[in-house]
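Human: We require from you a protein record containing the residue sequence and its fold in token form, and nothing else.

Assistant:
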Amino acid sequence: MKIQVNANSACCSILTGLILMTLAVSLQAEELESAIARGGVLYDKWYKVIDVDAPTTPHALYPADKKYAKDAKNNWRCKECHGWDYQGKDGAYSKGKHHSGLVGINGANGKDVKEIVALLSAPPHGYGDKLSAADLNDLALFVSQGQADMDRYIDRASKAPKGDQAKGEAYFNTICAKCHGKDGLQPKEMPPLGSLMGNPWEVMHKVLNGQPAESMPSLRALDHQIAADILAHITTLPKER
């Protein structure tokens, strides 16, 4: 009987250890996803995320002959140089008013986070005196591990999401409609969601990572195909109020 009790105790200890280990791994994964999503909103508009004034001096890397050369508020945003699809001059920003001629960040996908932090901190990027160590780490995590393969989910030529509209409607009504309404016309302070699909890459980025300094949550924990399905449904929503 004593041997049986000891065996049961050992089994319980092992099981408890496995459960605690699983919980620890799960928490680490959640923290990583949260940090990556925060990096995504920093990529969007970092100064709004950390609640500081936007820079007033143009970014050193932004070309002087491009549209936003004198607009520091815009040309210090990572997305302005590298695009919502992360491909810079080779992606959606290959032409038009946002064309900067600069490369994307897709080449840094999978790179060492410390190397990216070093690159972001030093001139000519020059974020070392603007972002904290935690901010830089989150941004670097996004660059290294958080880029969605936009061409997998959005057709580049037609801008059409590669998603299922019917599934997207169910997801939208469950996840998004509470804030945006089933017709996508809420809140009143923002344009109708249907009108935003001229730039599906931006919408995809914000669905996955959230909106800087706003209550919109990140849906990064969900399969990216769900986000594409949601975008497919948004294309059916009204473009005007």
